[in-house]
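Notes from the pairing session

We agreed to fold both candidates in a single pass and log them together. This is the raw record for the first candidate, unedited. Please don't reformat it; downstream parsing expects exactly this layout.

Candidate A
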Amino acid sequence: MPFPPPSRTPLGVPAGPRRRTLLASAAGAALLVGCTSESDSTATSSGSPSVAERTRARAASDSTGLVRQYDAAIAAFPVLAEHLSELRAEAVRHAEAFGGVEPTPTSASPSPSASASAAPPTEQDALAGLAAAERTLVDRRTKALLEVPGELARLLASVAAAGAAHVYLLTEGAK
């Protein structure tokens, strides 16, 4: 589709689209192509899982592990149950969104402690350990955004944003 010439063109400037218009159109076209050309195949030609499959499985496993850490913190410090139960429920939903399943409450791992000293862990240590685990997952998921197709990238971005909010709630709630 030809562009109409501007109504007033300065002397020596050819009529037609300006460089900015062409650059903006090219950038927009590249974004549209990037968003619509998803090749989320279930396996590569060699039969191994695709990057998207591996990323989804890793994210599900990470979220399931995080649920276990929440369970361990709640088991070690029942007074934190009210504060942590909604964050735990979010982690369960994230695991399910990536295709994982909720772990059984009896499969809790040792208490997430930021302190490796001989002193017993405290509630603050448990919260700091959970915040660190959430932060690690936020970073991992944010990096993975560039390697996966659109829908999975949007899911990772959404879950990473929720994880960042969890970090805030865990650190600010501890103050």
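Candidate B (folded immediately after A)
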Amino acid sequence: MKRLLSILLCVMAFASLSAQIRGNSIVVTVEPDHQDWHYKTGEKAQFVVEVRKSGTLLNNVSIDYAAGPEMYQDVKKSMTLKDGTLKLTGTMKVPGFYRVDVTAHVDGKDYKGACGAAFDPEQLQPSTVMPKDFSDFWQNAIKEARKTELDPTKRLLPERCTKDVNVYEVSFQNMLPGYRTYGILCVPVKEGKYPALLRVPGAGVRPYGGDIWTAAQGAITLEIGIHGIPVTMEQKVYDDIFHGALNWYWEFYMDDRDKHYYKRVVLGCIRALDYIEEYTPWNGKEMGVTGSSQGGFLTLATAGLDKRITYYAPVHAALCDHTNSLRGIACGWPHYFYYNKGKGQEKQIEVSRYYDGINFARLITDKQQGWFSFGYNDDVVPPTTAWETYNTVTGPKEIVPYQATWHFWHQEQWDEWENWLLKQMGLKK
């Protein structure tokens, strides 16, 4: 018994220690000489590269670095830093982002740092062309989708409910009979009418927990999946689907605007608003949408197509300015035409314009409040396209870059985003 107790205590101690592992002793930084990372075109940006171990510069460290316009870096070198530091310079003759990537090799492991310096980003303009029938195509698609009854289902999830919030898994039909959208609906327990928030997902296939916290502040929240499957199954089910039937789903039917995978996805977002309006105690006033990455694109699409949306918040929005790479400039994820420069993809290029976040952004009105945030080090959603998207919107908007973030959030960014959403719903001053 004593031995078993000893073993148990050792296991618990190890688990506790494992839970405390954070960060790395070795850190690579690339620091610009302008605090806001902003420069004028033609101005010279200076970068200081440092490789530190336990907070002090590391001697004789081997590095590789690449520098130049993001996604098109034309300077690539390898060297050894005797004192762990290096100074570099770079410039842009046209608006855009000059990016420096550094990889340090220490004891068989790689450690990365980067900096994306902005040159007159307020002047960046997108390349994508808006088809003449863009709005008609989507409004007709919505009209056709609404011929299919929502036929909603609703299942209480008692294990997720709190004293303040009831939590349900819901579903409703999408663009055709049998095409369903699933999600997690959170509604305040107290009777009344409430503002609403639709949360749309980033890329991938996964379960969802619902936004219980925001609902507890006094809002209706609906977090949806996009793949037409329940959102409360075990993670392994989603992993198997993602690596099986839905592998590379974002490239399905790229040459057919009517069969494109994202058609039912975008329409599912609009039908989600229909569901909120018809089947929840929405107050008929504040209706918002937010999401990051793929969800940022869906945020733009939903706000652009549906004027029930009064506020929207895209974070590092993907699927924006697909055709930018055709002119040698950074393009948005999934970087459809980056690798072969669009050769032999004329039909795909034409169809991509109907599924480009830029064109949805062009439909946003001055009655819709927007909040944009992204990182200058993002190597999935280039800040070039993020700034282009922001510049496209003519309605009221705010931009809050967190320069040092990659394709993730900083806590302060998350908190600022949450506070903005609450203010738009009248739940915080």
